[in-house]
Amino acid sequence: MSTPNESANAIFEPATLGPVELRNRFIKAATSEGRSPNGRVTDELIAYHEGFARGGVGMTTLAYCATSPKGFSAPGQILMEKESLPGLKDFTATMHEHGAKASAQLGHAGPVATRQQIGETPWAPSKFINPTSFNYCRRISKDEIKTAIREFADAAELAAEAGFDALELHFGHLYLPSSFLSNWINKRDDEYGGNIENRSRFVREISQAVKERVGDDVAIIAKMSMTDGIPGSIVLPDSLQTAQMLDADGNVDAILLTQGSSVVRQMWLFRGEPPLAGFAEHMPFPFNVGVRMFGKPMLGDFEYHDMYMYEDARQFLDKVKNTKLVLLGGLTQREHFEKGYNEGFEFFEIGRALLREPDMIQKIQEKPGYRTLCDHNNYCMPSVFGKTHCIYSPDYAMKAEDREIRPAETAGASERIEG
Ligand SMILES: Cc1cc2nc3c(=O)[nH]c(=O)nc-3n(C[C@H](O)[C@H](O)[C@H](O)COP(=O)(O)O)c2cc1C
User: Fold this and answer.
1) Is 396 among the residues known to form the active site?
2) Is the pLDDT of residue 275 over 90?
3) pLDDT at residue 404 tops 90
4) pTM higher than 0.85 for the full model?
C-alpha cells in the first residue's frame, strides 16, 4: 500500500486482514515446529503456540503444513489430510481462547525435499540437482502441476473447515511454487517457464484455486521471496512484477515479503553466522565433518543487521496498490515496527525473536524502551531437525558440548532490559 501510516500506537490496535480482524499487527512467523509425528497436530504443538498467543501476538502461524506427502521439508511436519482435522480444530479453538487468530502455512517442498524424507524423487519445474542435499529432482508434468494446485486448494479447504482465520501460501525459499519463479531452477519451455509472466503462472494459479475454494471467509497471505542471493535465480525486478500480478489478480489479501532459499546460500534468509556445529550434530559421518569444513561457502555468510529486509521490501510499497504488505526480517524492537508502519507496511511477522521470547509483544507494548533478547546466533535453525526451539529455552535439555555457542555461558550476558 502506498499510503504512509501515522499513529505509532496503531501497531497495537486491531487491524483488518481481508475478512479477519486481528487484535494487533503482529504475526508469529512460520518456523517449522517439528512437533507433529505422523503428520498430526499434538497437544505439545498446541501448547507451544499457546505461548505466542498468550504472549500477545495478533495471529500465530502453524507451520509447516504440507499439502501432500511429497511436500514435507523437515521431520515432524503436519500433513493436510482429513485425519488431521481434529487436531487442527483443537489448535484453532485454543488460539481463539487466548484472543489470537490462527493462520496455517500451506506448502509443498518441491526441490527442498529429499528422497530420504518423502520416499520418492522430489519434484522441480525442470530436472535439477539440489547442491546441498545432492538429491536429483525430476521435472513435473503439466498434469502434476494441476495436481499440486488442486492439493493447495484441498489443503486450504481443510484449514478453513478447521477454523483457521488465515492461510499463508508458501511461495518463498525455493520451495516448489518459488522454484517456478527462479530462473536458475525453472528451465521449462512451456507456459510455466521462460519470462517472468510464465514463471509466475503457477503461484497465480495456486492463489486463484485457493481463493475459489475458500471464498471470502478466510484471509489469504502469499509469502514470496524478493531475492534469494543466488545469481540468476530470484531477483528484485522479477519479484516486483510477480507481486504486481498477484495484486492485480486480487486473490490474496496480503503479500509477506521474505528473502532467501532453502536450497543453497540459506543464510541469505537468516543473516549472521551459520550454525555449523548445530547442523553437524544432526548429520552422520562424513557429512558432519563436511558441513563443518564446507558449510560456510554453501550456506553463505552474510552480515546480520536489524530490519535487514526493509530496504528491498520498501520497493514494493509503490508498486503494490491494493494488497497489504507484511514486513519481516530482523524485527526485534518497538521502533522497528513503528518505522515499518509509518512507511506503509500493515502487518509484521516475527520468527526468531518470538522463539526467544514468546511474550515480546506484551513487553514492548508495556515498556516502549524494552530491548528484546534474541541475539540471532541462529542455533534455532538446526533445531528444526528435532523440536524447533531457541537454545536459551529453559524447556530443553541442551547438548551444548559441541556447540560454538553455549547457552549457559551466554544466556545471562544477553539479559538486558531498558525502559
Ligand atoms: C527455526 C526456523 C524455522 C523456520 N521454518 C520456516 C517455515 O517452516 N516456513 C517458512 O516460510 N519460513 C520458515 N522460517 C523462516 C521464518 O519464517 C522467517 O522468515 C525468518 O526467520 C526471518 O524472520 P526473523 O528475522 O524474524 O527470524 C524459519 C525460521 C527459523 C528460525
Assistant:
1) no
2) yes
3) no
4) yes
